[in-house]
Specification:
With 151 residues, the chain is an alpha/beta fold. The protein has a single domain, classed as Response regulator (Rossmann fold), CATH 3.40.50.2300. The chain is 39% helix and 15% strand. The N terminus is likely disordered.
């Protein structure tokens, strides 16, 4: 699990998750399945936005934007909804797919996520093996199957 830029020009996932165990499990599932070599983890919304705002511009020697952002809703200081709104309002980041990955199954959270521009909403299963499998499938789809808009 990395907390800064990816180490090379590999495609990477930005995971924004305040729960250390969930972050470790997600990273393990993505790496062990071969879906993602590089995952940048931020533990709150402010860190994630700061990271995205400080990405280098048009310099191929430095890391590109993340291929996808996995974003938790319930975080301290700034929740996932506010982070999502800011990502989608910013011309530099709005095309990055954002997947809300939350333990909430409340219809209002799902609706609000899509209203703010989420590309997908996935509920975190409570079962350890199901959680790993869900994260692996989400990562595989967005990194291997989905065709993203040019950044």
């Amino acid at each position: 699990m990395k907390t800064g830029y990816s180490s090379d020009k590999e495609r990477y996932i930005l995971l924004v998750e305040d729960d250390h165990d969930d972050a470790e499990l997600a990273c393990m599932a993505l790496k062990n399945s071969g879906v993602a070599k590089d995952i940048v983890v931020k533990t709150d919304g402010r860190q994630a936005l700061e990271f995205l705002e400080n990405l280098p511009q048009k310099d191929n020697s430095k890391p590109a934007k993340p291929v996808v952002i996995l974003l938790d809703i319930n975080m301290p200081e700034m929740d996932g909804f506010e982070v999502l709104k800011r990502i989608k309002k910013n011309a530099e980041t709005r095309k990055i797919p954002v997947i809300m990955l939350s333990s909430s199954e409340e219809e209002q959270d799902v609706t609000r996520s899509y209203e703010y521009g989420a590309n997908s909403y996935v509920s975190k299963p409570l079962n350890f093996d199901e959680y790993k499998d869900t994260v692996r499938k989400v990562g595989s789809y967005w990194l291997n199957l989905n065709k993203s808009a040019a950044s």
